[in-house]
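User: quick one
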Amino acid sequence: MKRKLFTVYVFTKLNTRRFFRDRLALFFGILFPIIFLFVFGGISGSSGKDVSFNVAIINQSHSKFSEQFVKNTTESKVFKVHKDITTMQAAKDKMNKSQLDGTIILPTNFGEMKPGQKYPSGEAQVLYTQNNQTAGTTLVTVLQSEFKGMNAQYVQTATPFTVVGKQTNDKALTSFDYTFAGLLGFSILGLGIFGPMNVFPELKKQGILRRFHTTPLRVWQYFLSTMISQAIIGLISIAIMFLVAMKFFHLHVVGNYFEIALFLVFSIILILGIGLALGGWAKNERQAAPLGNIITFPMMFLSGTFFPRFLMPEWLQNISGYLPLSPVIDGARLMATEGKHLIDLGPQLGVMAIWVVVIYIIAFRVFRWE
Amino acid sequence: MSIILKVDNLQKSYNDKKVVDGISFEVKKGEVFGILGPNGAGKTTTLEMIEALRPIDGGTATIAGIDVASNPYKIRSIIGVQPQTPAFQDKTKLSELIELFAAAYGEKVNVKKFLDEVNLGEKASSYVETLSGGQKQRFSIAAALVHNPKVFFMDEPTTGLDPQARRNLWDLVEDVRNRGISVILTTHYMDEAEVLCDRVAIMDNGKIIALDTPQKLIKDLLGRGFKKKQHVEQANLEDVFIDMTGKALKA
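Assistant: Done. Structure below.
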C-alpha cells in the first residue's frame, strides 16, 4: 500500500509542476476566471444605482388613511412597490437578497385618530439592512419630507405623522456575492471538466496513457493523483479570486476559511469526476467535445454561474437545484458570505454526495487507456 | 538456458474471426525472439495478450512462471514495453519522466546515475521535446527498462524509421540482450530479423507456420531445392546512403 501511495505522490507532484509550466493551462485555469471576475463584478456593481426605491409596504393598519398612503406611494414614481410581498418574512428575505432597498411598515394604529385628537396620526417604520444603509436612510428622509407636507395639512403645531428608520440585524447579500459564488462555480467547472476533457484525449492520441497502461499503474492511482493535483491548483486559483474580490469588489467573507476550503475541495473533486469520466471515456477530442458541451451548458446556465438561480421561475429553480454545480455555488455563497457552516449545508452536501458516488462509478467504468 | 516465457495454444477471436489461432512457443532467457508476418497476421494481438493488455480468449501465457491472465499487475511489473511510437508528456524534464516511470512501478531510482548510464546525463534537465531522434529512442528504451524487467517487448520498433535510425535501434537491442533481458519483437523486415533474432516465428492468419533460427530456416529452404537468382552485389544503395550520411544518427 505504501508503494502504491508513493506512486500517487510522485504522479501528483510532477503533474502539478507540469500544470504551472503550461502557459495555456495557467491562462484558462487561473487568469481567465479573474478576467471574468472583473467583467461581471463591474456589471453587478453598476446595476445597483437605481434612482427609484424598491420597497415593500406592510400595512398592518386598517385605517382609511393608511390605505390612501399605500395607494399614493404605489403611484409615486420614486417608489417601486412590490405588491406581492405582504409578510415580514418575505420582505426580510427579499431584502437579504438585495432585491429590496427597504420595507415600509405601517403599524396597526397608523392613521387612526387618537382619543382627544382631531387629526389622524401614526409612526411609520422603515426597515433596511446593514448593506443598504444609504438607501435606507435616504428612504427615511424621503418619507419625512412627504409626511411634512401631509402634516402641514392637519396641524401646524404638532407632527402627527412621523417616520423612524430601523436597521435589521441581517447583513444582506449584495448582487456581487451572487456573482462571485457563480464565478467560483465557473472556475471549478473550467478546471474540473475542461481540463481533463482536453488533456486525456490528447494523452491518448500520443499513446502516453497506453504507455502507462503497460506498467502496473492502476486507474485509481491515476485518478487520485489527478484529484489531489487539481485540488491544489483549484485552491490556489480560488484563493487568488477571493483576494481579488476582497480587494476590488469589497467582498466581505464572514465564513470560516478552513471550512470553505474543505467545501471547495469536495466541490472540485465532484466536478472533476465529470471531467475524468468524459476525458477517460473519449477516444479523441471530437468525441469529448459534444458530450462535454451537452453536460456543461445546462450547468453553466441553470446552476447560477452567470445569473443567480433565484431569478428563475420556481419550477426551474426546483429542478436546477439538483444539478451537480448548483449545490456547489449555493454552498460556496452560504458559507463565504452568509457565514453558514458545513453542518448547515445538509441539503447541498447531500446532493453532492449522491453525485460524487454516481459520477465516480461511471468514471471508473468508462475509463480506457487508449 | 532457462525458459522465461511460455505460450501455450493462445487464442483470440474478434467477431468470430480467429485473429490468433492456437499458437505455442517458448522464449529462453537472454534470447531475442522475433515474430514475423504480414500485416494482420496477429502479431500485435499476440504481443498485447502476453503483455496483459488484452484479455486472453483461450490457452495460457506464463512469464517467469506467473500466469498472465490471472496476474496482470504482477506481469506488468516484470515486463518492459516499448511502444511503436515513443511519446512522452511534454513540459516534463527527462529526470522527472524517469522518476515518473519508476514510480509507476512503485520504485525509486537514482535518476542521475540512471541517465548517466544511458549517456543522457547532461540532458537531465531538458524537456523530452528537445531531444534528437536518436536520443529519444535511447531514452524511450531506457525508460521502459527502469524497473529491470525480465522480458522486453517491442512492437514493430523500426517501422517508419530511416535506415540510420534503424541501425541505431539494432545496436540498442543488442545492448538490452547483453543485459540478460529477453527481447520479443515483431517486425515485417526480414533483414532486421536476420540480424537481430536468435530465433523467429513466422505467423500468417493467426497461426505459426514456422519457428526456428533464421539460419536453420534458410538452410531448410535451400534443402528443399530453392534457388535464388544469383546476383552478386558488393554494395547496395542503402550502403551508399549510410556511408555518405554517417553511420550514427546525427545528434
